[in-house]
Design a protein that fits this description.
single chain, mainly alpha
Length: 441
């Protein structure tokens, strides 16, 4: 038996392999069917090692420690069925073990070595890409997809998904011309691949092309209702284009209708929502009582430290609502979690996560000098907290806002000059420039 790209599988069940292949396609297209299909593959052939491993991977992608026991159970099943597995499958099981144990660097190295021998292993490539993103490994986002591109034929299943990863990697490394080229080709080859759409949206965001961005994401709000919460991140990007275009009401309307889910406390929803509310407030928008819901979610995840970037956004919500006791408890929990030096995130929490969280608390307490002192030394080295350049821009926005409120005119002026150079014609920068001029008058 083989997968869609001709890689050998240990299963002898055609139905199980079919479900496995469909699970991979669903995963790459952010469909809600991915996990049920992986379970179906394992149920149809309980000895199918990679199907159990796939389930473990999918639990880890949830980005929460709440499902860690389920990931461990799937790993156990994969290990118990690995005797008859292929070499490639056994290496996947090892990568899952390393990921669960928190050794993200070793897990990524494992997937990279798989790709040296099996360059058509789209699962290894996507998981390496996923973890590189949340580790802030910007170079890897481009180098690994680029390293296997020549091994692929254009008619191979998943070729468009590969192009989408190449595109996003180019974008994060500042190669916007190739990013847009590969991203648009990926969207043509695989129109259902939201990552390709997302890559082009990033190019347009980083270049300040908000009119092009609004056209690129000009879709009905129900366009991707059959997809998982990642779809709301695309609407977050559209909201940013609205802000840059000065359409603040449009951004707030998108928040209510598409960015913030009714009941979801999925990590990406929290990041999108908190970041968007902060950006709108920094542009003078009254967002009303919207922070309270996010703070409630944060209080229910005090000890969930799967992603440092999410922790920081939880603190944003708690501090904005004045729940400083809860915010402090979350920071103390982060410190305790980081005591295990074997985890990759331990150093990130200590060197970046905690100082950034402390700075956000200082901001909401009006201690703007402390915010400047906390964020300014870190603003060029925040990559390891994960996410994209566009998402991490929120730290620069807190710094600029603190400089404006502290009346630190030279600092605010230089920060604004940088922003206006990178994104000319942005309403956000124009609004803050007017505030700066008003404070100097």
């Amino acid at each position: 038996m083989f997968d869609d790209r001709g890689l050998e599988l240990s299963s002898n069940s055609e139905d199980a392999v079919s479900a496995y292949n469909e699970a991979i396609r669903s995963f790459l297209e952010y469909r809600t069917t991915a996990m049920p299909l992986a379970k179906q593959a394992a149920d149809l052939d309980p000895q199918f090692c990679l199907a159990h491993c796939l389930r473990g991977y999918f639990f880890m992608v949830f980005g929460t420690l709440a499902v860690l026991d389920k990931a461990r159970a799937a790993l156990g099943q994969a290990q118990r069925t690995s005797e008859a597995a292929t070499d490639r499958e056994k290496r996947h099981v090892e990568a899952l073990r390393l990921w669960i144990e928190g050794d993200l660097t070793a897990a990524n190295a494992c997937w990279e070595r798989i790709l040296y021998d099996y360059p058509h292993d789209l699962l290894a490539l996507r998981l390496h890409h996923f973890n590189s993103f949340w580790m802030g490994q910007t170079r890897a986002l481009r180098s690994i997809p680029a390293s296997v591109l020549a091994d692929w034929r254009k008619d191979m299943p998943g070729y468009g998904n590969l192009l989408g990863m190449v595109a996003f990697g180019c974008e994060e490394n500042g190669d916007y011309a190739n990013a847009e080229r590969y991203g648009r080709e990926a969207a043509e080859v695989s129109p259902d691949d939201l990552w390709a759409l997302h890559a082009v949206a990033h190019v347009l965001e980083m270049q300040g092309r908000h009119s092009d961005g609004l056209k690129w994401l000009n879709h009905p709000l129900d366009q991707w209702n059959d997809r998982n919460p990642f779809r709301r991140h695309l609407w977050w990007h559209k909201a940013l284009f609205h802000i840059d275009a000065g359409r603040l009401d449009g951004a707030l309307e998108l928040y209510d209708s598409a960015v913030m889910g009714d009941k979801s406390d999925f990590y990406l929803d929290i990041q999108n929502a908190a970041s968007l509310l902060a950006r709108l407030e920094f542009c003078g928008v009254n967002v009303g009582a919207r922070w309270a819901k996010l703070a409630d979610y944060a209080e229910n995840h005090i000890d969930d430290h799967a992603l440092v970037f999410t922790d920081i956004h939880f603190v944003m919500s708690l501090a904005r609502e004045g729940r400083f006791g809860a915010a402090r408890r979350l920071i103390e929990s982060m410190k305790a979690y980081s005591a295990d030096e074997l985890k990759y995130v331990s150093g990130v929490i200590q060197k970046l996560g905690v100082p950034l969280c402390e700075s956000i608390i200082a901001f909401e307490q009006g201690r703007y000098d402390d915010v400047v002192d906390g964020i300014l030394p870190l603003r060029h080295v925040t990559g390891p907290v994960g996410a994209s350049h566009a998402q991490r821009d929120i730290f620069d926005q807190y710094l600029l806002e603190a400089a404006l409120r502290a009346n630190k005119i030279p600092l605010a002026q230089k920060l604004l000059q940088e922003r206006r150079f990178l994104k000319p014609g942005s309403h956000e920068s124009d609004y803050k420039q007017a505030r700066l001029q008003g404070s100097r008058a």
